[in-house]
Amino acid sequence: MNRFTVEVLVTPRPGLLDPQGKAIHHALASLGYDSVEDVRVGRAIYLDIEAGSAAEATERVEDACRKLLANPVTEDFRVTAAEPACGAVR
Amino acid sequence: MNRFTVEVLVTPRPGLLDPQGKAIHHALASLGYDSVEDVRVGRAIYLDIEAGSAAEATERVEDACRKLLANPVTEDFRVTAAEPACGAVR
Question: How close does chain B come to A23, measured CA to CA in Å?
Fold first, then answer.
């Protein structure tokens, strides 16, 4: 078994209210960053997981996203390529 | 000016307490995901920004990270390659 680090990006679905993004947008505008046109805020989750292959790690994490990590009604998620954590072959 | 979408990933510094990550780790374990060894949770922030080039957009967002988006004491941030939002050349 190898150890993989899997990145999960959970973002609010387009069109849904994102009050945290709005708050950051206003704060940036008041600091003078007026070229910013939109801000959306989600979660970045990093999981270290033991699995036989990157594909297996990704599949398991996608399953966990559907059950726990993301709200399927209001959020999208993207699980990006798992990569072996260095020196962690066991 | 073009419109770029810039991705900012803000993560807790290694070694610092991450209670949200711990909570997710425990919840995953209780759902049977016992191959997960560690979980860290940060923020994924997407900014649509008007700029002359991707490099200019990235630079402006890195500056905003230092001033507002990340806490330099407890968090690291990564600004990934800005890419032009489709059909938004003006």
Answer: 11
